[in-house]
């Protein structure tokens, strides 16, 4: 893979096997698993590609088809979608919600996990129907938020859960 030289990260490149524009770099590379080619899409500032996929052979059936504007734009759209789905999945893994109905109205209980290597933990929080913060306590990253655990926390007047570690 061709290396960038310092200071040229924003300059567009439009070569047969390498395009860079709009914060993305497409690099056509030899597929080590077979005789074909692959393309790697890397977002500017990232060390790893967001997307690596097969690339079409050229007419000579030996060399890769050259990159062009339409292919690059499609690759950017696909790589951006991969990143968006990854971010949505990560958010879903780290953020949980449960609603509790009380005499005073609905309370939304959230659990936000902080995946810190040295100190993994989570924040258990409650908000009323108007969005006002009611409580927030630190709990262990393994705390399981369910409708039952949320209701028990609300009923305890937001006392730190005993099994919060």
Q: How would you describe what is shown here?
A:
The chain has 165 residues and is α+β, with helices and mostly antiparallel strands. Strand 4 and strand 5 form a beta hairpin. Mean pLDDT is 90; it is low at 1-7. The chain has two domains: 13-67, no CATH class; 94-155, no CATH class. The protein has helices at 69-94, 147-155, and strands at 13-14, 18-21, 24-30, 37-43, 51-55, 95-102, 105-114, 121-128, 133-140.
Poorly predicted parts: 1-7
For the largest beta sheet, what order do the strands appear in spatially? Answer: 1-2-3-4-5
Distance between the termini: 47 Å
Can you give the helix content as a percent range? Answer: 10-25%
SSE string: EEEEEHEEEEH
> Which structural class is indicated by helix and strand composition?
alpha+beta
Structural domain tally: 2
Q: Looking at the structure, what is the overall shape?
A: elongated
Q: Care to count the β-strands?
A: 9
Characterize the main sheet.
Answer: 5 strands, antiparallel
The rounded Rg comes to 24 Å
Q: How many helices?
A: 2
Mean pLDDT over all positions: 90
How much of the sequence is in beta strands? Answer: 35-45%
């Amino acid at each position: 893979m061709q290396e960038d030289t310092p200071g040229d990260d924003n300059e567009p490149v439009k070569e047969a096997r390498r395009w860079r524009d709009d914060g993305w770099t497409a690099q056509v590379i030899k597929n080590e698993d077979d005789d074909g080619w692959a393309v790697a899409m890397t977002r500017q500032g990232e060390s790893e590609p967001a997307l690596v996929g097969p690339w079409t052979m050229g007419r000579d059936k030996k060399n890769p088809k050259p990159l062009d504007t339409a292919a690059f734009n499609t690759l950017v759209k696909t790589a951006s979608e991969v990143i968006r789905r990854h971010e949505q999945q990560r958010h879903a893994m780290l953020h949980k919600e449960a609603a509790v109905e009380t005499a005073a109205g609905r309370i939304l209980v959230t659990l936000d996990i902080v995946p810190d290597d040295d100190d993994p933990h989570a924040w258990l929080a409650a908000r009323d129907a108007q969005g006002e913060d009611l409580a927030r306590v630190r709990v262990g990253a393994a705390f399981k938020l369910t409708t039952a655990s949320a209701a028990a926390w609300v009923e305890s007047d937001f006392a730190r859960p005993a099994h919060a570690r």
